[in-house]
Write a structure and sequence with these properties.
three-stranded mixed sheet; alpha/beta; single chain
Amino acid sequence: MPDETSRLQMAFEKIGRRRDNPIVKQAVRAAHGLVRGYEGGAALRNIESNGEARVLEKLGPTLDVVLDVGANVGDWTATALRAGAKAVHSFEISPATSSGLTKRYVGDSRVTVNQFGLSHAPGTVTIHHYPDYPALTTMTEYPHDAKSVAVDVPVRTGDSYLADSGIEKVDLLKMDVEGAEGLVIQGFKESFARKAIRAVQFEYGRVSILTKYLLRDFYEDLTKHGFTVGRITDTGVTFTPYDMSMERFNDSNWLAVHESQPQLVDLVI
């Protein structure tokens, strides 16, 4: 005797056989999009399977100072600490999320939680916070149906933060800021110029269509400061020169390593 779930599945299968029905066609396309989003988003954000944990494991013993920009609830920070990072400065721009992040790491001297964001200039910006999906919080006007709340929040530059904190060198700058990566990079221009940052991890994907900050721009802004760029996969990092065929807007994670640190490339490939 089929249970309720099985009966529902059989009902949908029966409806799905009406291949010529325009409503069924639209529903099938929507379902495919739902599955791609569910599986693709989950895969990208699963640190253990998307290659991020592997990169941190390889680099862990070399990480004295790490910046986690767009820390969300702190899972990436936790993975970096397990890998051996000695100090992590975490930044979370959403007040609702950063309060939980602060509670998570209270008493852990290795973690400094900053309840503000980084950008190209100091000031105040408006973010869209998604209570049901806090990881999607962004400064970018993103066209999806999830309900958001507009919040004005403070930002400052990475250069000023490093100066005020007395940080001379950053071993890994990680950015996951839902489309604001280009602004964060601009805010570190002095640090890049003095070769204070050894490696950079960033996320690239569909949001670039909206921000118009493309993979090409990541490459240009980082290679001009002496970085080699590669895509992070579950088996390693593939470092390649930029080609227009790479501009596919597939959500993905990338690693840039400064030319003065060839040993880091050897560790992660």
